Amino acid sequence: MKTVVVDHPLVRHKLGKLRDISTDPVHFRQLAGEIAGLLAFEATRDLPTEAVTVQTWAGPLQVEHVRGEHLTLVPILRAGLGFLPGVQALLPAAPVSVVGLRRNESTHRPEGYYQRLADRMEQRTALLIDPMLATGGSAIAAIQLLKDAGCPRIKAIFLVAAPEGLRALEAAHPDIEVYVAAIDQRLDENAYIRPGLGDAGDRLFGTPVD
Question: In this predicted structure, what is the pLDDT of residue 93?
Answer without folding.
Answer: 87
